[in-house]
Amino acid sequence: MRELHEGIELLEEEREAGPFMWQNWDKWVSRCEEITMWIDKQMLESNPPYSRDKSGLVCGVEWPAFRKAVDRYRQWLKEQCGGSEGIKDQLVFAHNDTQYGNLLRIEPEGKSPLLLPANEHKQLIVIDFEYASANSPGLEFANHFTEWCYNYHDAAKPYALNEKWYPTPEEQHRFIKAYVQHQPFPSSSQSSSTQHPSQSPSISARPNLSHSISNFMLDSRKPPQQIAEEEKARDENTEKEVKKLIDETRMWRPANSAQWVAWGIVQAKVEGMDDEKKHQSDNDTANETAAVEQGSGESGEKKQEAGDNGEEGGEGEDEFDYLSYARERAMFFWGDVVQLGLIGKEELPEEMMGKLK
Question: How far is the C-alpha of 307 from the C-alpha of 295, rounded, in Å?
């Protein structure tokens, strides 16, 4: 992960465009509103197959309330990061979809160089860069840690988010500390050509390990107390950086959830919605055509053009329940913004409180 973040430099226009997850949100939000409000209407009117007992509101509350909460959180996040420029300074090339299916491991045999201790991490192969783009390390960690909560091969509920599987504080600390301490490009660690000037000094200003022998010789001439003090200072700097990234992960986690809520909604095949829209379109077009014919005496030869603009539908049954996935993610979002103090529990329906994650 560190090698991706530091090994691929963002284009200036990518940095200027801001976090790609918000670009996704802005791109998907209109379609989300259309789908969610239609489903919620069916549910509130108890129209099958959308009933309160079966599914509930897509986002736990009606769409306008959910979108307002995302907007409130988005503004808070912007302020916490020091404004738009502060957010841009955090951006790195991120994978953005590090779920277990996209992380492969090579099993080397014999005398493979991958068996050397220095190369063991290279046994891991990351695939599927469909969503790779400019995002913050905090969002990358939040996404990866949240993916710990899924078993996409579960026979009953592959969409379910099991929050008890979320990594413990100790596991998060160990993961991020390994990230901070990993030095993927030691020979260029002091070069500014591939690093944004706003990166944390404790990450960007790495010592050049190519001089490890001379450093060792110099260290041997230092008093033991000085060596101990320097080691202590390095450890303190590492811990400071780890804490900073853990805090950023916590801050960015609702953004990650909001993006995947929207993704689940736009991926969903909504039973009855497109048929109703097509029927309404047919009626509207027929009425417009009739009005034109009455006014101009034209024949109705063009009536057959109506209703040909429906969206493509997938063939067969969709095995993955995208709407349930979106609902689970929405509960994770709500749980986070409540814990952050951005939304009061009294602002949410009482029946939803037991579902927060």
Answer: 23
Interstrand relation of 133-135 and 103-105 (parallel, antiparallel or unpaired):
unpaired
Length of the chain: 357
pLDDT at 85 over 90: yes
Pairs from 240-243 (Cβ < 8 Å, separation ≥ 24)? 240/202, 241/180, 241/200, 241/202, 241/203, 242/173, 242/176, 242/177, 242/180
When comparing pLDDT for 55 and 125, which is higher? 125
| Helix 63-80 and helix 20-44, axial crossing angle in degrees, nearest 10 | 160
350 alpha carbon, distance to own chain's centre? 28
The beta strands (E) that lie in the chain are given as: 92-94, 103-105, 124-126, 133-135
pLDDT digits over 101-151, tens only? 888 878 777 788 766 776 777 777 888 899 999 999 999 999 999 999 999
**Residue type at 90 in one-letter notation:** Q
Question: If we measure between CA atoms, which residue out of 277, 252, 260, 256 comes closest to residue 324?
Answer: 260
Place of tokens 């530091």: 6
Cα 159 from Cα 330, distance rounded (Å): 12
Closest Cα to residue 88, out of 193, 9, 142, 12? 12
The continuous run of DSSP H or E covering 278 comes out as helix 273-296
pTM equals 0.76
The CA-CA-CA angle for residues 271, 272, 276, to 5°, reads: 155
> Which residue is listed with tokens 């509103």?
33
Contact 140, 95 (CB under 8 A): yes
